[in-house]
Amino acid sequence: MAKSILVTGGARSGKSLLAEQLTLQFGQPAIYVATAQAGDAEMAARITDHRSRRGDGWTTVETPLALVQTLRDTDDGSPRLVDCLTLWLSNLMLAGADWGGEAADLAASLPALQGPVVLVTNEVGAGIVPANALARDFRDAAGVVNQRIAAACDEVWLSVAGCPMRIKPQ
Amino acid sequence: MAKSILVTGGARSGKSLLAEQLTLQFGQPAIYVATAQAGDAEMAARITDHRSRRGDGWTTVETPLALVQTLRDTDDGSPRLVDCLTLWLSNLMLAGADWGGEAADLAASLPALQGPVVLVTNEVGAGIVPANALARDFRDAAGVVNQRIAAACDEVWLSVAGCPMRIKPQ
Amino acid sequence: MAKSILVTGGARSGKSLLAEQLTLQFGQPAIYVATAQAGDAEMAARITDHRSRRGDGWTTVETPLALVQTLRDTDDGSPRLVDCLTLWLSNLMLAGADWGGEAADLAASLPALQGPVVLVTNEVGAGIVPANALARDFRDAAGVVNQRIAAACDEVWLSVAGCPMRIKPQ
């Protein structure tokens, strides 16, 4: 049975490095499933940074929206690292897609996959309530997605200042 | 002796569901002590959502300000779920009340109650420092309230992506 | 060998009190290394509050920028409490200094110190992504500094609602 792992944490808390290590425990070659699009300079720099750190042994697939289908299409036994769910949610919301249905599909599909999947997400709900209604909606949606995917995963990790804490199972 | 439990976490982190489960371990009927007022559409929708999930076996008391008195008035042995302290603090501050004194009263009253109490609160201090002075004051006050009530409670739980972590006692 | 400890958490989460307790386990007199400058009323009030709580047995050194040098200058075996790295980073960025180089210097210097050091920092990356580019840069930098110093420290603690969690080593 597939192993599915969720890695969460704040910005720059060491999530991606932890997720890479958790992915590589399943062997190589591994597939980096990027939900980002290099649409602006900041994001392009971040993608380049991640790519140079990962080095050889990885192939990259970009999938801003069709994440569930991409996980099925790449399900040849290779470990996959999905980076990240928060950006995927943002892409879905911007595209006017049914993000709740997509998240439910993802949660339902994880146990049926052959190969392991490590998913990165972000903690965005531990600051002050945003003044902006759209930001509040996004924050709520991100929390809902995190809960649904965490419930479907075999393991959940929280990274704080680069220190990994396994929070499911404890 | 009464059992008092604090449940904290970010927005949509699974706090309310965890708090309901912790409350029901003390049996039913249970009392849902709501500090929210259905003053706007967002809040009304949230209250309805919580109410439909809880189902039978619960009665609801609304107490935007007089939380300590309400806990004394309902102290017939039934378990109580207070949802939530952050909104209570916000109500107190908007009313110009002495929130520090109220929080100290609540902390002092918890050990003297006959029935168990589970209190929900929010993590609001792990984002960037707010530019707005009122938001900074609220964030500081919320942190102070969380510390005071946590110190008075027998147990404290942190919910992250729906995964419960008991942080007191560890 | 010196013991270096990082204490992190959100605003008003009990970090400073925990850091004081961890510092005093190494004995007294202890040195409070303040990176704050009493430049505005809010900060002055906070410094006074901390100072009155700590009481006797502490001396205070203010070092808004030259933290690494101050730690060498005070390395007579006394325990030191650095409060806090987030403000130090902010001071460095405002001064146009090479904060990345400074953080690397600090990380490298910790194992070579004779006396113990407890460093306080802040979780600032678990809220919604800030709309403001400067705030995003600061949030990213704070996360990078936290990871680097955490990696160099023997222990890392996370404080939530005044409840201490040791997250390194677990």
Query: How many domains in all of chain A?
Result: 1
Return the CATH class of chain A: Alpha Beta
**Average pLDDT score of chain A:** 93
- Percentage of helical residues of chain A? 40-55%
Strand content of chain A: 15-25%
Task: Estimate the global geometry of chain A from the Cα principal axes.
Answer: globular
Oligomeric grouping of the chains = homotrimer
Q: What's the total count of β strands of chain A?
A: 7
Using a beta-carbon cutoff below 8 angstroms, give the protein chain pair with the largest interface and the number of residues from each chain. A-B, 28 and 23 residues
**SSE topology string of chain A:** EHEHEHEHHEHEE
Main beta sheet strand tally, sense and closure of chain A: 7 strands, mixed
EC number (chains A, B, C): 2.7.1.156, 2.7.7.62
Pathway (chains A, B, C): Cofactor biosynthesis; adenosylcobalamin biosynthesis; adenosylcobalamin from cob(II)yrinate a,c-diamide: step 6/7; Cofactor biosynthesis; adenosylcobalamin biosynthesis; adenosylcobalamin from cob(II)yrinate a,c-diamide: step 5/7
InterPro entries (chains A, B, C): CobU/CobP, P-loop_NTPase
Protein name (chains A, B, C): Bifunctional adenosylcobalamin biosynthesis protein
